[in-house]
Design goal:
Strand content: under 5%
Structural class: mainly alpha
Largest sheet: none
Order of helices and strands: HHHHHHHHHHH
Number of strands: 0
């Protein structure tokens, strides 16, 4: 069984194609180790953002008023929530997204798409990390990333749904489409149709997340845990 090299296929996509086409059920020696590495990297990001206090500014009044026990409990709950978000993020991108791509590219093996998706997850997390670092440097966080058109659009026209939609179409989105197309096109005859599908999937994801983002999820969460 050919040993898996995570970085080599980035410059030689055909290398991964060859390994998968000559593997048994999409299994490559050394691949699982990188799954855990990427998973750990994902969880590390969510832990760091929680330690910095992302989305916990409204808990400051507990600390300022001397309610240290309640504050510690609230931060612990948010830490657990961040860990759960990290797990859900990874599972969604590693299992659900490949399945969606598998449905729309029905002649590509599901396990093969998972191998490609392992290059997409770090791209998204790195973009989030850079955004977090910028927030930390300025000491303030916004719901929008600098890698999208949402911040600029906010100066022209402010509409929650539109801004959250644009916020999902970032540099990482472009890189994601490029990675998917670079690898998956090697198993597709109609490359133009594949590109249209990949772009369409990203737009649908952005629309769904925008719909979810305008819901008062944080208020529901606080009421659930009586924070």
């Amino acid at each position: 069984m050919d040993k898996y090299n995570y970085f080599q296929p980035l410059s030689q996509p055909s290398r991964l194609t060859y390994q998968l086409e000559n593997s048994e059920n999409g299994k490559i020696a050394g691949y699982k180790k990188w799954v855990w590495v990427i998973f750990g990297f994902t969880m590390f990001y969510y832990i760091i953002r929680n330690i910095w206090g992302m989305n916990t500014s409204h808990l400051t009044y507990l600390y300022a008023s001397g309610q240290n026990d309640q504050y510690s409990y609230a931060r612990l709950v948010y830490l657990i929530g961040s860990l759960m978000m990290g797990i859900v993020f990874f599972l969604f991108h590693y299992y659900v997204v490949p399945y969606i791509l598998y449905v729309f590219t029905n002649n590509i093996e599901y396990r093969w798409i998972q191998k490609v998706q392992l290059y997409v997850i770090p791209v998204i997390i790195i973009e989030k990390f850079i955004t977090l670092i910028i927030f930390m440097l300025f000491g303030i966080a916004t719901p929008f990333t600098f890698f999208s058109l949402a911040p600029m659009m906010a100066y022209v026209y402010y509409a929650d749904f539109l801004l959250y939609f644009l916020n999902q179409l970032t540099v990482a989105t472009i890189v994601t489409v490029w990675i998917h197309y670079t690898f998956l096109s090697q198993w597709q005859d109609t490359k133009k149709g594949l590109l249209a599908k990949l772009i369409g999937i990203q737009i649908v994801f952005a629309l769904l997340i925008a719909c979810i983002s305008i819901l008062p999820v944080s208020i529901w969460f606080e009421r659930m845990f009586d924070i």
